């Protein structure tokens, strides 16, 4: 047997570090002190291990979206997007997002619960580099991101050249949404 194989890997041998990926995280809140919650959530994102940089958009206020469509009577949302430079695996990053939500009073996710409920904090993993996943526990890119003005609009402010993998340029997706909305109201 080769003696070097039996000795194992030398401590002098360094493996190059894995470069960070850029994950896009959408933030939303429509209950409590929305601005303070979102500021704290961005700070918590920055404290995650293996995370080197966070670039967050300014929050925008949007009408609450319910299962029946927009509801101007419901508490309005603040929405933002953060670019998270991280070496965390996508599934691990998602676990951190859920932990941050729980810290802010969001109950654990229940697949049977109704969507589009009011929330103290909602963090959605929109993209993780070019990773695509059809696993129900980790859908990437987020399956409804291309239909969400409140995701696309703040995303463009922090990355004007952004692309949603499998869907195209974010600027073009946002323009299509605006054109469709204009047609509906004309």
Task: Give a short synopsis of this structure.
This protein is α+β, with helices and mostly antiparallel strands. It is built from 5 helices and 11 strands.
Radius of gyration: 19 Å
The total of helices stands at 5
**Shape verdict:** globular
Give the H and E element order. HEHEEEEEHEEEHEEH
Distance between the termini: 79 Å
The class by helix and strand makeup works out as alpha+beta
Q: Please give the share of residues in helix.
A: 25-40%
Question: How would you characterize the largest beta sheet?
Answer: 5 strands, antiparallel
- Unreliable sequence segments: 1-8
Number of strands: 11
Mean pLDDT: 89
Strand fraction: 25-35%
Describe what you observe in this structure.
Helix 4 (149-158) packs antiparallel against helix 5 (170-184). Mean pLDDT is 89; it is low at 1-8. Strand 10 and strand 11 form a beta hairpin. The protein has helices at 3-7, 34-46, 90-103, 149-158, 170-184, and strands at residues 21-29, 51-56, 60-62, 64-66, 69-71, 77-86, 122-128, 133-135, 138-140, 163-164, 168-169. The chain contains 5 helices and 11 strands. It is α+β, with helices and mostly antiparallel strands and 186 residues long. The N and C termini lie far apart (79 Å). Strands 1, 2, 3, 6 and 7 form a 5-stranded antiparallel β-sheet that branches.
């Amino acid at each position: 047997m080769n003696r070097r194989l039996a000795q194992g890997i030398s401590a002098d041998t360094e493996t190059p570090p894995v470069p960070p990926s850029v994950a896009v995280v959408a933030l939303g809140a429509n209950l409590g002190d929305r601005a303070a919650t979102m500021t704290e959530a961005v700070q918590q994102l920055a404290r995650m291990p293996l995370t080197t940089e966070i670039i967050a958009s300014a929050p925008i206020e949007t009408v609450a979206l319910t299962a029946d469509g927009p509801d101007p009577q419901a508490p309005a949302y603040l929405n933002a997007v953060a670019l998270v430079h991280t070496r965390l695996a996508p599934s691990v990053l998602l676990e951190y997002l859920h932990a941050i939500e729980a810290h802010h009073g969001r109950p654990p996710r229940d697949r049977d619960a109704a969507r589009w409920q009011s929330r103290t904090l909602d963090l959605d993993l929109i993209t993780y580099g070019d990773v695509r996943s059809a696993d129900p526990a980790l859908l990437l890119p987020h399956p409804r991101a291309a239909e969400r003005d409140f995701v696309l609009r703040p995303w463009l402010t922090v990355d004007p050249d952004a692309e949603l993998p499998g869907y195209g340029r974010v600027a073009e997706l946002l323009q299509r949404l605006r054109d469709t909305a204009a047609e509906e109201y004309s």
